[in-house]
Write a structure and sequence with these properties.
Layout lengths: L2 H8 L4 H33 L2 H19 L2 H16 L3 H36 L7 H11 L3 H16 L4 H23 L9 H25 L15 H33 L3 H14 L3 H20 L3 H35 L8 H13 L3 H16 L4 H23 L2 E4 L4 E4 L5 H25 L8
Antiparallel strand pairs: 1-2
Helix pairs in contact: 2-3, 2-8, 2-12, 3-6, 3-10, 3-11, 4-5, 4-7, 4-10, 4-12, 5-6, 5-7, 5-10, 6-9, 7-9, 8-9, 10-16, 11-13, 11-14, 12-13, 12-15, 13-14, 13-15, 14-17, 15-17, 16-17
């Protein structure tokens, strides 16, 4: 066991090991957030149409979807490597990492084909306003070429996090985001003699950034880090490890993809309400992601710590760490909610060219509504991360299905539309006709319900007996 992983597994207490893992991830998430904010700022200030804003709203979801397509390999790798490192079995952890890359390569081939041949179908299925469809398709066509690089980033970072190393992912993301931000700015504005490509420049900047990140991480693993070392000769299938990886990773991956799929379906409902609703929702979600930085950091940290502590046979300490982490996350999310409630409009106007932009006004309204659900969202983020980290991935999948598929999506239709039609039953249900605000109410209710269900699972304690 390396010095870093040994200290994490053996350290008593909660806050030092938690912060040691969480702080680099938080910095990484803030860098990612900066890229998203830069893209929205460039779109609002230099491209300046509602069509571009609506297309950017969809692209934000696409950039979330693509990494999620490898979640089976990512979640399986993190959970198994954390358990093995906690038990002192670094050779086993290295074997898991190589098998995760093999599984990821298969998923990357399927994802690349899906993006290349199904991109247009996807955009039209999302019911984006017709004027924004060509813009979204242009962006996705550029992204299709770097899907394997996104896979390599995700699997490498997940493996290192499972081993207790969150700093390397931060350093890689620094390179990714510096390249992304700088290149996007130059290509959109045409500064410093660089060709002015406008909208397409955003896609090229994102693609080159991911390619740089993949190269950096592979080079780090070739040299060896946190007890893990990538060797090309080890990329041969080991059926027993792949089965274990998939037994944990597939339910977790289905959970993540279900979350993304339901969010995309929800976004498609938003899109039926007009391009202003699409633009306002997309901008609001981008600003809301400010709160996700500490949340994602706590989620990654608790996934690693809970997995390693269970691997070391310290279940009670794992439970105590989960509880304390959730309290810290609630405090962060509550503070963010207060900022959104009272300062939503000034924040939204930072990303629009006109002070009376309708997208900014709707984004501010969105932020005031979601602000009340922020403490509950903190519990969802931390508890789902803890359960995935220890390999208890079936429960999050069930909660996701209930909250998003059964509550949020039907609720959004019922509250937003004047009438809901169920074609195969030839049934028409009168709706509330509240528009995009109704859809946001449904989202808040879903978050409340899911937080209660996750809390129930944590209190029950069955997750502490999970076998991976």
């Amino acid at each position: 066991m390396t010095d870093t992983t040994a200290r994490l597994a053996a350290r008593q207490g909660t806050w030092r090991p938690l912060l040691r893992l969480a702080m680099p991830v938080m910095a990484e998430e803030f860098l990612n957030l900066l890229v998203g904010y830069t893209d929205w700022w460039l779109t609002g200030k230099f491209l300046g149409t509602t069509e571009h804003q609506a297309a950017m709203g969809l692209i934000a979801y696409v950039l979330w979807l693509l990494p999620s397509m490898f979640s089976a390999a990512v979640i399986g790798a993190t959970a198994l490597i954390a358990r093995l490192v906690g038990a002192g079995d670094l050779p086993g952890a290295r074997r898991v990492m190589h098998q995760a890359f093999l599984v990821g390569a298969v998923l990357a081939a399927l994802a690349t084909a899906g993006v290349a041949f199904g991109g247009e179908t996807f955009v039209r299925w999302m019911r984006l306003d017709a004027s924004a469809v060509p813009l979204a398709m242009e962006y996705i066509a550029v992204l299709a070429w770097i899907v394997p690089a996104i896979m390599a980033e995700q699997v490498a970072i997940a493996s290192l996090r499972g081993a207790g190393d969150t700093r390397t992912g931060l350093l890689a993301k620094v390179a990714v985001n510096v390249v992304n931000t700088l290149l996007c700015t130059l290509l959109v504005t045409g500064s410093c003699g660089v060709p002015k490509l406008g909208w397409k420049g955003l896609a090229i900047g994102a693609s080159v950034g991911h390619l740089v990140g993949a190269v950096v991480l592979i080079l780090v693993l070739l040299r060896g880090r946190a007890g893990l070392r990538f060797e090309w000769r080890e990329l041969r299938p080991i059926a027993s490890i792949i089965r274990r990886l998939l037994r944990v990773g597939v339910p977790g991956g289905m959970d993540v993809l279900a979350v993304v799929g339901c969010h995309l379906t929800y976004f498609a409902i938003i899109n039926t309400l007009g391009k202003e609703a699409t633009a306002g929702h997309g901008l609001g979600v981008q600003i809301e992601s400010l709160a996700y930085c500490p949340g994602s950091a706590f989620q990654v940290a608790i996934a690693t710590l809970a997995g390693q502590l269970l691997g070391a046979g310290r279940a009670d300490e794992a439970a105590r760490t989960v509880r304390r982490t959730s309290l810290a996350a609630v405090a962060f999310y509550s503070a963010a909610g207060a900022v959104f409630y009272f300062g939503g409009l000034p924040l939204a106007r930072l990303f629009t060219a006109a002070s009376n932009d309708r997208a900014a006004e709707l984004a501010a309204l969105y932020l005031s509504i979601v602000a009340i659900s922020m403490p509950s969202l903190a519990l969802v983020v931390v508890f789902s991360g803890a359960l995935r980290g220890v390999g208890d991935t079936v429960w999050p999948l069930a909660v996701t299905f209930l909250g998003l598929a059964i509550l949020r999506i039907p609720g959004a239709c019922w509250l937003a539309w004047d009438e809901c039609t169920i074609s195969f039953l030839d049934l028409r249900i009168p709706g509330w006709g509240l528009g995009v605000i109704g859809a946001w109410y449904a989202m808040v209710f879903d978050v409340f319900v899911r937080s209660g269900l996750f809390l129930g699972r944590i209190v029950h304690g069955g997750w502490k007996r999970t076998i991976v």
